[in-house]
Amino acid sequence: MEAIRLDFTTQYNQFYLSSDNGNAALSNGIIWTEKAYDDRLGAFENFLVVFPESYGHVRGELFVLAAGNQEGESEIYDHVVEGPLNIASGVLQILDCPGSFKQLEIPLTPGQYRVKVSFSNMVGYDSDEAESNDKCTIEIWPGNDLAVKVLKSFPRK
User: Fold this and answer.
1) Domains contained in the chain, number
2) CA-based nearest residue to 15, from 99, 77, 80
3) Residue 93 sits in a domain of what CATH number?
4) Could you tell me which residues come within 8 angstroms of residue 29 by beta carbon, excluding any fewer than 6 positions away?
5) Do the beta carbons of residue 55 and residue 125 sit within 8 Å?
6) Of 108, 88, 68, 94, nearest in space to 15 by CA
7) What's the chain's average pLDDT?
8) Cα(26)–Cα(97) distance, rounded to whole angstroms?
9) Do 144 and 132 touch, CB atoms closer than 8 A?
10) Is the pLDDT at 95 greater than 90, yes or no?
11) Residue 43 forms part of a structural domain
12) pTM
């Protein structure tokens, strides 16, 4: 399992995982809900919104797995959430906010996937700070579960 490094700038405490440049989700204009914000993950057609603690700088790693990793709720993580993502195009994209510019693009076999986002180092930072030491680890694998599930919760301030 090779880690793909994430290190980019976004805004508004969010970035996106998509398979279609965000076209399906962004065209309907509704990508933010209170529940998604609290869960730190919103699931929409071909699109996930990830809500890190940091307002701007995103650091972390992405892992493409053959199957789900059950060890993700360990003590090193403050918040862990899973959700579905349909990779219809055969390409996984990470997009910034608000411009939806591609920060990463990797080929994947078209199909339904599960995505686990695990956040660490969230304690002691205000969500309006552009810089913090929070980190997100993203794991993606083939899977048909369509529910968003919070496995470990870090409360919003």
Assistant:
1) 1
2) 99
3) 2.60.34.30
4) none
5) no
6) 94
7) 89
8) 11
9) no
10) yes
11) yes
12) 0.91
